[in-house]
């Protein structure tokens, strides 16, 4: 079963402290839902690529939290990982 520790995500995002823990946990849950709805099979949840895809999703959403900011296109790395997880 997949489990991303918040400490791992905070290290990836270079966040110190626990002020953002609730927001980060929400991003992780949203990433898992996003990947499931994108068609990533459940048997891929324990893989390093799945974990990286969750971290990338969280990173994109953490860095672009301003609702007035428009994200022109989703991250190519995340799209590539999703495709690999769906077909590989």
Structure, explained:
The chain is mostly helical and 88 residues long. The protein has helices at 6-13, 21-37, 48-63, 76-87. α2 packs across α3 and α3 (48-63) runs antiparallel to α4. The protein is globular, with a radius of gyration of 13 Å. The two termini are 18 Å apart. 20% of the residues are buried. The model has no long low-confidence stretch (mean pLDDT 87). It comes from Paenibacillus pseudetheri. This is Phage gp6-like head-tail connector protein. It holds the Pfam family Phage_connect_1.
Helix and strand succession?
Answer: HHHH
Q: What's the number of extended β-strand segments?
A: 0
Spans of at least 5 consecutive residues whose pLDDT stays below 50 are none
Largest sheet: none
Helical content stands at 55-70%
Please state roughly what percent of the residues sit in beta strands, choosing from under 5%, 5-15%, 15-25%, 25-35%, 35-45% or over 45%: under 5%
Assign the structural class, choosing from mainly alpha, mainly beta, alpha/beta, alpha+beta, or little secondary structure: mainly alpha
Output the number of helix runs. Answer: 4
- Shape by Cα distribution: globular
Q: What's the N-to-C terminus distance? A: 18 Å
Gyration radius, in Å: 13 Å
- Mean of pLDDT: 87
């Amino acid at each position: 079963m997949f489990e991303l520790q918040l400490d791992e995500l905070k290290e990836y995002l270079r966040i110190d402290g626990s002020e953002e823990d609730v927001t980060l946990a929400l991003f992780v849950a949203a990433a898992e839902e996003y990947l499931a709805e994108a068609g990533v099979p459940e048997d891929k949840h324990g893989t390093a690529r799945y974990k990286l895809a969750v971290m990338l999703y969280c990173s994109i959403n953490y860095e672009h939290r301003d609702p007035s900011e428009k994200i022109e296109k989703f991250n190519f790395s995340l799209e590539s990982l999703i495709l690999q997880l769906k077909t590989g």
